[in-house]
TrEMBL record:
Signal sequence, start to end: 1-24
Bias (Low complexity): 38-55
Pfam family membership, one: CAP
SUPFAM superfamilies for this protein: PR-1-like (SSF55797)
Keyword Signal among UniProt keywords: yes
Region annotation (Disordered) ranges: 17-63
The protein, known as: CAP domain-containing protein
PANTHER family the UniProt entry points to: SCP DOMAIN-CONTAINING PROTEIN
UniProt xrefs under InterPro entries: CAP_dom (IPR014044), CAP_sf (IPR035940)
Domain of life: Bacteria
Amino acid sequence: MRRPLGVLAVVASLASCTPSTGGAAGAAPEVTASAEGAAPASTPTQTEEAAPEPASESDECRVSVARPGTSTLRIQTSAVRRGCVRPALLRIQVKRAIPGDDPVVKSGATRKGRITLTMPCKPGTYYAVATDYRGGTAKSKAVQLTCVTPTPTPTTRETGAPPVSEQKEAISSVGTALENEVVRLTNAERVKGGCHPLKHDARLRRAAFGHSADMAKNDYFDHDSQDGRDMADRIRATGFTGSALGENIAMGQRSAVEVVKGWMNSDGHRKNIMNCSYTLIGVGAAKDAKGQIYWTQDFAAR
């Protein structure tokens, strides 16, 4: 089963973005995040239409919907009801923006308060609409998505391994053992491609972990935080002053090996990992209430 991944670099804003020294932008796989990666698909529960009930809902009841994002060969979005007292049917539709009436390309419904849709990736502009049958509605922003075919073996060139002392310096005591394993595996890929290993930076790690923890707590998957901050905002908030920022995200991978492999099998995420201009990295891994791991890599140069 493929897991979702997201990729972001400061200058471009497609489903798969390339790094730059400009302002941050991106979408998940945007992706976003995986990740690039792959997406755990859940089949929407098909259910009958429910008639609206006369009782009014609490003012705290809200419906939210995530903008569609890409993982490897998949498009994914989700919707959720929050702060609601009474149950209601929640329906989500993915629409493709084209001249004329926008067709519904995927739909589903649930009474459980949260639903995720996945479908095969086809390039185009998509948005999602969520409705609960007590009257709440939400519509995501439209996003242009591209579909990346996975590359089983990244193109590399043979190069000598750096001295042991340099490798040890690249992976410091910053972060957890799991996060440092992601750094180690990332640096192993960089070395094979001729790039120097990255140093695990405490401030970048703080930004990465904060984003992973926020996604896990609030049940979303995107490069943009729900409070409106983007990757650059989160990194600058830690006091970091480097440049050439980039970000990879992923969700659901069960190990460091699995998430790095997923990123390396996606063109956009691999470009961030193999960008030799980066010198620093921050990795954050956080679990949600169900034990699912959200992963973030933040890259920078100094």
